[in-house]
């Protein structure tokens, strides 16, 4: 019950932000910004701290500037694999006897390399050798498992009152989050620093099987998943946004301890990570603990970023997935990254076209013409750090095809190119954008997540507090201008599910 009260957190901030949504367009976040400070350790690790003493709880978000777009060729899904590994513990957590476990893990890795090498021979593989190596591998895995304390990292967090323990990997970044009572502040520093200083990739090969099952469920057994994968493969000819986030089955199979640790040592370095701490703390206290627990991490140059640029699309691209499923339609258009000055305009177009029951696509396709059961638009997909896609997703109504819905979507999009939307509609778009923005900041975790993301993408968390100004600056003429440039046939990629009888 005590923790339930604490998760209400940030009461004062929530009131301020909620009030801000109804204020005039000139509202300033100066009073909130004054509560935030930052510092950088000598090794390059940046901390952002926001004081909020309204409840005795503190939330943490650790961001690693690495995602699916950074996966090495042939090892798609590696960023996602490592996110799983970060919960497996350290040389002190998650093991019965680390000295014995290390020997067992080294043996397991060596056997896996032999097994994988034989598997990759394909039709020329020796079936007897495969069977022997498989049995040997399974026995070695059982030996390793006997030395593991399952989920000890998570158990410690929960036992000490921690909540919100989670992580997520996208194409652009990976983040780790948790919340603790403020009297457990030092525990978080001890746990978090240890798992990134001394990770142990225990149960790596078992976790790969879990990830393969994720792929089966989300893609191979899902018509929509296959459609999205086909869409991305068509929309991006060279950029890594076109690769599956969880990797292909072959990519997942390629991952071993050596490649995973090389990935970790390249990307999980202080210069490539940011930590946000929001709650019942003081900057002085956070600085002291950061120096004590994180300064021993070695200083390593920041890894190079993805340099591949998607060439300009010059003709429409299409992908069709045949399945017994009901039809679906996904339409995308190339757009610049979120660093582009028109980013708020793309958000406004997405809102006007397909966000909510009052949007143009929903009103026309679902309510009036009844040719679809759902119609939505999203301003950036599958990431936003690099040039990405503006997307439209439609679920046709019973008896309707994806092609029929496509024609109607195209008609509605053309209207947006030919009109200047009324000022009252523009004001509604801005009000919804502000409310959504405010909502993202109304919890400790929400604020921490936004601070690290803005720091990572814009190089300064203070850019967060310019968001309302950018929303306010959007004009109806901007929307028409960007729509005319965006919604062209040669810039379009279309994927849909074609329903088969069998």
Name some characteristics of this structure:
five-stranded mixed sheet; Cytochrome Bc1 Complex, Chain A, domain 1; alpha+beta; 502 residues
Plain-language structure description:
Mean pLDDT is 91; it is low at 1-27. With 502 residues, this protein is of the alpha+beta class. Helices cover 47% and strands 16% of the residues. The relative contact order is 0.16. It has 2 domains: 59-294, Cytochrome Bc1 Complex, Chain A, domain 1; 317-499, Metalloenzyme, LuxS/M16 peptidase-like (Cytochrome Bc1 Complex, Chain A, domain 1, 2-Layer Sandwich), CATH 3.30.830. It has helices at 2-6, 11-21, 30-33, 78-85, 98-119, 127-145, 152-159, 185-197, 204-220, 223-235, 249-254, 257-267, 283-294, 343-354, 360-368, 402-418, 423-440, 444-458, 467-473, 476-486, and strands at 36-40, 46-51, 57-64, 163-169, 174-181, 273-279, 317-323, 329-335, 372-381, 388-396, 492-499. It has 20 helices and 11 strands. It has a 6-stranded mixed beta sheet with strand order 1-2-6-3-5-4, with helices on both faces. A 5-stranded mixed beta sheet has the order 7-11-8-10-9, with helices on both faces. Helix 14 crosses helix 17 (423-440) and helix 17 runs antiparallel to helix 19.
Short description:
With 502 residues, this protein is of the alpha+beta class. The protein is built from 20 helices and eleven strands.
CATH superfamily of the largest domain, please?
Metalloenzyme, LuxS/M16 peptidase-like
Largest sheet: 6 strands, mixed
The chain-level structural class is alpha+beta
Q: Count of helices? A: 20
Share of helix among residues?
A: 40-55%
What is the CATH topology of the largest domain?
Cytochrome Bc1 Complex, Chain A, domain 1
Span from first to last CA? 54 Å
The proportion of residues in beta strands is 15-25%
Please give the CATH class of the largest domain.
Answer: Alpha Beta
- Report the C-alpha radius of gyration, rounded: 25 Å
Total domain modules: 2
Low-confidence stretches: 1-27
